[in-house]
Amino acid sequence: MRRIVLRSETDWDGWRQATRALVQARVEPGAVKWVVARAVGGEADPLPETTGTFHVPRALISLASVAIQAREPERFGLLYSLVRRIGAGEKVLEDDTDPDLSMVRRMALAVRADAHRMRTGLRYLPVTEDGGVRYLGWFEPAHFVLPANARLLARRYPDLKLSIVTPDGSAHWDGSSLLFGDGLRHAADDEALQAWWETHRDLVLDQASADVSVSEAEALDEAPRPPDRPAIGPVVLTVKPDPGLQLAGREAGSCHRCPLYQPATQTVFGEGPADAPAMFIGEQPGDQEDTIGRPFVGPAGQMMDRAMEEAGIDRRMMYVTNAVKHFKFVARGRRRIHQTPEVPEIQACGFWLDVERTHIRPRLTVAMGASAARAVLGRAVTIGRERGRPIPMADGTTAFVTVHPSYILRLPDRAAKDREYAALVADLRTVRDLIGAG
Ligand code: URA
Predict the structure, then answer these.
(1) Which ligand 1 atom minimizes the distance to the CA of 298?
(2) Which of 84, 183, 193, 279 has the most CB atoms at less than 10 Å from its CB?
(3) What is the pTM of this model?
(4) Is the dihedral of CA 420, 310, 223, 296 positive or negative?
(5) Is 106's pLDDT higher than 60?
(6) Domain segments of the chain: what residues?
(7) pLDDT, tens only, 284-310
């Protein structure tokens, strides 16, 4: 058995170098033991001496650079085996039924979901440092997503000092360099986080090492921020989960109020801080939301995030949910095609929307698209006629109607897409003014 020791859980360069040498030396995947130095220590066996090159498709490199961040220990061997089979001429990437490929794709999906959770869910605690402020953020990742995403957050906040602390390790950005150090096992609250910082602030900067080499371009499908789109500052608030809402979310997990629960993977409940000034409501989870279990994380969610950011709204401070909490679809072969929910389904799920509204008490309820508008206003709504202005509601709060991002995604031509996207951003600027979020 050949023992390969990687420097860290996300030692991309180490894995690539070893994989290249092992494939060329025709080493069987079962004859390789992959271990991580930090976890086990010890000597590595030397890599076989080889020369020459072989081609690995770009799609596999990009998939592997995400999947390597998964927490499953078998990922290194699985990825090695895929590269070796492709190197031997097998058309693995074209075979959607291949069990190894499916497992790697599932890992990559889970990593992406976790990265999204980190990028949208971090809250920061400001602590004073050298007369200035450092923002301390706590996050418990399901996978090893800190290194690649810390780079992204550092780039998002070029002028700030910030530290992201997780049980796996911490990342520290001072405006010019990004260092990695020890982690903290548990941070039940702000005091625990602050106490850890007090004892680690010197240590962290001594021990830190930039021992991480997942390339951010490969790890994240995220384009650099255009210079004309300023970053929204870090949200300084601790997430105080509303216990009542958490309980409701768990109960909704076994909801049978309509038949949509049967084919769906899971209930996708809303999320966001309990004191959110506005609640954003979509129609229903899509394919990716159904798999991941969180609202608006797929293509429509990405468009919503972008439009919100352009309008100066920080999604992390808003409550985001759907009129219907299960994905309604018809299966066509391997694809699941979205189906618009019927009025009785929207009405049945209105129960959960009421529960969410009672807990959040948003000043403004933003309905995106006709299904959400029906759920909020209790009647059929023509979006073009009612969009873009405050609509008083019987409970004294205000509703606001705009288009659903999926509508824009479905438009056939570029010019129409651009026009409708600009109109969505204009509506969201009105939302920002109505809630006073700048
Ligand atoms: N579309 C929605 O309406 N909601 C989601 O969560 C995703 C897509």
Answers:
(1) 7
(2) 279
(3) 0.59
(4) negative
(5) yes
(6) 2-117, 123-218, 243-435
(7) 999 888 877 888 888 898 899 889 989
